Amino acid sequence: MSEEPARPDFAGENRTRSAKEASIKWFLFVCAALSVLVTVAIVATLLVDAIEFFTRVSPVAFYTGTNWSPKIGEEFGVLPLVTNTLAVTVLSALVAIPVGTASAAYLSEYATDRTRSVLKPALEILAGIPTVVYGFFALVYVTPALRGVGVPVGTFNLLSASIMVGVMIIPMVSSLSEDAMSAVPDSLRQGAYGLGATKYEVTTSVVIPAAVSGIFSSFILALSRAIGETMIVVVAAGMSPQLFPSAFESIQPMTSAMVQLSTSDLAGGTAAYYSLFAIGLTLFVITFSMNVASNWVASRYREEYE
Amino acid sequence: MATENPDRGESWYGSDEGVSQLRGAVFKWGCLSAMLFGIAMVFALLAYVALDAIRPLTADTEWLLTFFLTLVVPTGLLVGYYARRDRTAGWVGGTATALPAFSLLVGSGIALLLVEVFQPIEWFGTTLALVAVIGAIYVHRRLRPDPVAFEGAAVAVVALLLGLVGIPGAIPSLSGLLQNAPLALNRATIMLYSFAAPVGLLAGATVARRRESRRAGAIAAGLTLVLAVVAVVGAPTVGIDDYLLVVLVLSVGVPTALYAENVVRKREHLVGLALPVVVYGGVFVGATAVQAFGFAGPETWLDWQFLTNSHSRFADEAGIYPALVGSIMMMLVIVVSAFPVGVAAALYLEEYAPDTGRVGRVVNLIEMNIANLAGVPSVVYGLLGLALFIRYADMNTGSVIVGGLTVGLLILPIVIISAQEAVRAVPSSMRQASYGMGATKWQTVRTVVLPEAIPGILTGTILAFGRAIGETAPLLMIGAAAVVFNPPNAFTEKFSAMPRQIFAWSHEPAAEFRYGVLAAGVVTLLVVLLSMNAAAILIRNRYQRRS
Amino acid sequence: MAEKERPTFESRRKFLVGAGGVSVATLAGCIGESGGGGGDDSNEDGDGSDTTDGGEDISGDVTVTGSSTVYPVSVAMSEEFQKMHDAVDISVDPTGSGGGFENHFCPGNSDINGASRPITEAEEENCAENDVDPREFQIASDALTVVVNTEFDIESITFDELAQIWEPDGAETWSDVRDDWPDEEFELYGPASTSGTFDWFTENVVGEVGAHREDYEATEDDNNIIAGVEGSETAMGYLGFSYYQENSDRVKAVSVAEEDVSNAVEPSLENAKSGDYPMARPLFVYPDAGAIQEKTQVYEFMNFYVEQAETDIVSEIGYVPTNADLRDENLDRLEEIRNE
Q: Last residue of some domain: B267, B284, B306?
């Protein structure tokens, strides 16, 4: 390039250049806009077949029915699946939220650089383990261990699956909450120390309240992940939906029902087959709105502290 | 009021400091132990699965003792030394030890692709065609230093098309011609020309730049070629096909040697290089000793047979080989599809997108949309893949390409977000400097921003690929096979991937499957995954130190 | 790409075994010098090349989808077939009978679909629209077994009595069904409504598809049925024969008669094979006639499949093999289809 002779015709070169620049810009834009197409495609896919389903089974029956048995009597009440998904979410939140928040508080406020450099990658490993492996852990190790300490769990049960889902989403809570806590301006901390507060008081009364919207947004995001989690519950939670689930027995959340529907002996083209997409749509709407809510909470937080 | 209260003074001077310190300490240690509980639980589970897969306790005591003496003790001593004297050397040693193992994984991946997917002659033709294409572009630049609009791009595209695809029905592609040409070359020679030569050139160029000496570069390139030739000559003694041994030896040897050269040249923390010698030397000595004395090793599930067999209904004969190759091929599709698109999208969003105006609002929408897509459950992506690629585009059910594209879509938002972060981290002063020298936007992006952001982009995307390799639910939806007995020969064929195979095994009720084969499969998957994560972390550490 | 020359099975083995040597030196930390592995491999190497030379030179893909009940049989068959013809790529996927027909077989993406029930008319029409022509082959059967506690004094039962116990709003106590049985409440264990076993049982024993009481312990893991029946003296359950076979010391199987108690037949592979045992559920595979005619590998695989369906390969899984008559009939029909 540097050897090019100097040319007086800058205008021509500029035209070439700007045409090239513009086309590159458009190409990159198309790549970015592809993500919107993906969303549209997801919605379209789910809607088309879900509508097909709703022409056969009324949405009212679907969303208010309390019995999910696509086989016996073709009853398509999605409520048991929803309550079971909720059960998994709540139980896993009981594991993930305290542990995740505590980890975030420790990493952000107490840990030295050296401990952080060991603990953070360790937490990241938790996030990197495939969910089918967590499912395997729940089925093969956690359930027998629970039995060993006297908890009367069945082969497939809500409890051990939820524990593993909880462990899986710990890193999500901890890393996002830690980001939120670290983003609290140091001046706030200094001010509190200046008033004679101890480190504990600074952490619990200043940092956590100041970061609370960020922490909440991390909870929402992690819970939406728990709702959409598939393989752990497919492998370890069983396949019997219960309107009022017991922690020790087999249940069936929405995702697990979807996998089962797509791989079971059900005859294709039936309402049962299309119900797959109706559940998928429900699941998509729930998780999507939770993500939107999480972003909204987080953006409120950003306005406050920047 | 103040004077009347005798307690006030005490509380003011902090008599209850003791209490609050206790409370603070309880809180601090509570937080720490909560975190450690989570981490410890998973590590305990990992230890369990490793124990089940490897069953070290089934080995002879002498066997364990031998390896303890030859491997564990020396390594432990050396690590202790690093911890007390020279921590940086410890990092150097760790890297130097991990690098060959990781390179061996990558090299085995390439070798597997050469065995199962591409023929060496195809590889050869493609390499030569690529060389021709680069040559054509270069010649064009020399002949016409002042190209009109898009001329350069057009020449490149035409050359690529002619070289790799040809014009269907009219002109065969160059690589096709080369493949069909009656060349009297055996596979080893082919790989020498088309693999060892480029790798040698690359190594030579690296060394020449580092040492600022062409001679050193020439030596490095020469050594690489010598190593390759030695591999070919020595192949019969090792028992591996020569053309594959070339790939394995070079992919292990060259990165390791380059790293060692770097350490030696700087003459810092040289003692770190002792660690790989001790570790691999210990393994070698131990293995020799064990064989000489005839100590029996563990009856492990995760043995070579497991890695090279396909599924069997008998636990003893079951293996993961076809699923392993399937996973590698799927990764290839993901890398080719999701990586460029993701990086391009990130570049647009960070470098080009306006913040305001109508386009700005569209861009905001896109960004929000990407964040939300990252949270869509994987099973929904499976439905998308089923509808989009199988029903609509009519591709083959459960084929590698459908699996790769579906999972590629799934990790696309993650790739975009992490690439965005990396691009954002490039200081704007560098951009300003580039503009100041008259560079256009694209020139700035291509020559300043991208090179600077590449380590960060790689870190993020490797982690995303790690997620991709473990995804199972989408594969169930698009109908990836539970069991295949041969790896797919082409990307349009049905395949099984490691997590899919693991899921299939989890249905086998027999204890031998649950605690043996399944555990071995999980460990294989985790080894691949954790080494990917380790690579990402290594890249990040290097990068962080530099900036 | 499939037509291009592939490295032989042997060369791959050689590479893999050799690479094993290399990585023993590098990765032995985890793998170790496992003497067994190498030895096994070299044995198999020999096997592989022998049979490759002996077998006909066929290659190509065979895709098997369908019922998860038939899946173990198909996997075993492909495993054995693959040993003789390693150039044939067989993939087996449990997609469910219906899911297999709807998503894979009828659209023409699969050569063979397994089914634990006969194909429905709707599915046949769907296939016909895509010029796919499914042909039925029964390749095994599953002997449903009624089990009770080993302490419980009952030896035989009829379909009618079973129906009384399992139909919706069925009997509450044993004595409701037969007078000389104890006046105790049932504890019932059975497969979840999603299983093919459940389907067959409701259709053939209770008398109507899906007609089944809901107040029973439904489980996906047949081991739970065994454990439940073992743990309670008045319990009853039904499950596939293979699980009973593995646990015959823990629970007691009941002889079953279609009508008259005196004709009750004890569940066993022999009785089921001979056709005496009434609760044998047939398992089918549906190959596409077009695939049989056009793809040699599909024909060869089907030929192997129906021929071997009569052997121990099937009984080892715990299913009932076909008898010699059925096998010959199947083979003849396969030949006819091929020559159509």
A: B306
Q: Which H, E and C letters describe chain C, residue by residue?
A: CCCCCCCCHHHHHHHHHHHHHHHHHHHHHHHCCCHHHHHHHHHHHHHHHHHHHHCCCCCEEEEEEECCCCHHHHHHHHHHHHHHCCCEEEEECCCCHHHHHHHHHCCCCCCEEEECCCCCHHHHHHHHHCCCCECCEEEEEEEEEEEEECCCCCCEEEHHHHHHHHCCCCCCEHHHHCCCCCCCECEEEEECCCCHHHHHHHHHHHCCCCCCCCCCEEECCHHHHHHHHHHCCCEEEEEEHHHHHHCCCCEEECEEECCCHHHCECCCHHHHHHCCCCCEEEEEEEEEHHHHHHCHHHHHHHHHHHHHCCCHHHHHHCCECCCHHHHHHHHHHHHHHHHC
- Name which of A197, A204, A255, A207 is nearest A231 in CA terms: A255
The answer to whether A290 and A221 are in contact (CB under 8 A) is yes
| Average pLDDT of chain C, as a whole number | 79
Pick the CATH number of A68-305 from 3.60.60.10, 3.90.1200.10, 3.10.580.10, 1.10.3720.10: 1.10.3720.10
The residue of C10, C14, C17, C22 whose CB has the most chain B CBs within 10 angstroms, and thus the best one to mutate to test that interface, is C22
The CA distance from C201 to C279, in Å, is 8
Nearest Cα of chain B lies from the Cα of A162 at a distance, in angstroms, of 14
The answer to whether the Cβ–Cβ distance between B366 and A287 falls below 8 Å is no
Nearest residue in chain A measured CA to CA from C114: A265
Q: Please answer yes or no on whether A265 and C195 come within 8 Å at the CB atom.
A: yes
Closest partner CB to A295 (pick from B28, B368, B387): B368
The string of pLDDT tens digits covering residues B279-289 is 999 999 998 99
DSSP letter string over A37-58? HHHHHHHHHHHHHHHHHHHHS-
Number of structural domains (chain C) is: 2
Residue B309: closest CA among chain C residues belongs to which residue? C41
Return the minimum-mean-pLDDT range out of B216-225, B441-450, C185-194: C185-194
In terms of domains, do B326 and B202 share one?
no
Tell me what ipTM this predicted complex has: 0.89
User: What is the chain C residue with the closest CA to A260?
Assistant: C194
Task: Give the torsion through C-alpha atoms of A102, A108, A113, A119, to 10 deg.
Answer: 30
Distance CA B341, CA A84 (A): 38
Chain A / chain C CB contacts < 8 angstroms: 83
H or E segment to which residue A5 belongs: none
pLDDT at A301 (0 to 100)? 62
Owning domain of residue B449: 315-546
Which residues share a beta bridge with C62? C90
pLDDT digits over C52-83, tens only?
334 457 888 899 988 888 888 999 999 999 88
| Nearest CB to C98 within list A72, A156, A267 | A267
Residue B55, in any domain of the structure: no
Within 10 Å of residue C320's Cβ, how many Cβ atoms? 28
- C-alpha to C-alpha distance for C340 and C337, rounded to whole angstroms: 5
Cα–Cα distance between A26 and A46 in angstroms, integer? 30
Main-chain phi, psi angles of C134, to 5 degrees: -75, 135
**Distance of residue C315 Cα from the nearest chain B Cα, in angstroms:** 13
In this structure, how many other beta carbons lie within 10 angstroms of the beta carbon of residue B73?
13
CA distance B535 to chain A (A): 12
Question: In this complex, which of C15, C61, C316 lies closest to B493 when CB atoms are compared?
Answer: C61
Contacts of C202 (CB under 8 A, 6+ apart): C166, C208, C209, C210, C211, C212
Helix axes B357-373, B400-424, angle to 10 degrees: 120
Domain span holding position C71: 58-135+288-339
Q: pLDDT band at B148, cuts 50/70/90?
A: low
